[in-house]
UniProtKB/TrEMBL annotation:
This is Ribose 1,5-bisphosphate phosphokinase PhnN. Pathway: Metabolic intermediate biosynthesis; 5-phospho-alpha-D-ribose 1-diphosphate biosynthesis; 5-phospho-alpha-D-ribose 1-diphosphate from D-ribose 5-phosphate (route II): step 3/3. It comes from Pseudooceanicola algae. ATP binds at residues 12-19. Keywords: ATP-binding, Kinase, Nucleotide-binding, Transferase. GO terms for biological process: 5-phosphoribose 1-diphosphate biosynthetic process; organic phosphonate metabolic process.
């Protein structure tokens, strides 16, 4: 039987660079994959590769127990499909972009679950979200207002700053994974 894969949650405020760091880490370490999330966001929104669902379809799948984790943020629903459990059982190591609000559930449900918290100062977040241009000014303000959301009590997170070159944060995450090698 394959050794259980590791799930690594990447969290932090909107604009901190979760998707950018995850993609670069996965590109640098072919043995690490990315979890494809279900989101009630239009398919052509750009950014990460995700499964675009209508709100009705999302709620149907959520009620049917098809998500390992799900949450609501920024007016959208997000879900992590249960297939992740099978991929982990097959020995795949995976990075997943999570809301800070679901970390306690993730830690309780997934053996060996690990959290990496990315940080950057508020003005840096604001500049990046404006430059990315995926959201309106009003939506960006809402995301920035949520930036200081505290980690739930009891969550052990390894902290990586992404306030300089992206390559520095990617190297820091890779070093953390090396320190405690993903089996
Ligand atoms: N170190 C960096 N230096 C400069 N720009 C960066 C850096 N990291 C990320 N970015 C840019 O900042 C923007 C936000 O990054 P990204 O979408 O990866 O963040 P995120 O944390 O996934 O955000 P969200 O939670 O809103 O999806 C992107 O345009 C990305 O190219
Ligand atoms: O503030 P918290 O709850 O930690 O994160 C909430 C959500 O914000 C980001 O959404 P997106 O990736 O921009 O769609 C994260 O991926 C997460 O789903």
């Amino acid at each position: 039987m394959a050794q259980q894969g590791r799930l690594i949650g990447i969290v932090g405020p909107s604009g901190v660079g979760k998707d950018s760091v995850m993609q670069a880490v996965a590109a640098a370490r072919p043995g690490i994959g990315l979890v494809r999330r279900a989101i009630t966001r239009p398919a052509d929104a750009g950014g990460e590769d995700f499964s675009s669902l209508t709100e009705a379809e999302f709620l149907h799948r959520e009620a049917a127990g098809q998500f390992l984790l799900s949450w609501r943020a920024h007016g959208l629903h997000y879900g992590i499909p249960c297939e992740v459990t099978e991929l982990l059982a097959q020995g795949e190591d995976l990075l997943v972009n999570l809301s800070r609000s679901v970390l306690a559930e993730a830690q309780a449900r997934i053996p060996g679950f690990r959290t990496i918290l990315l940080t950057a100062p508020a003005p840096v977040l604001a500049a990046r979200l404006a430059a990315r241009g995926r959201e309106s000014a009003e939506e960006i303000a809402g995301r920035l207002a949520r930036a200081g959301f505290a980690l739930p009590p009891g969550i052990r997170a390894e902290v990586v700053r992404n306030d300089g070159a992206l390559a520095q944060a990617v190297a820091a995450v890779l070093a953390l994974l090396e320190e405690s090698p993903v089996p």
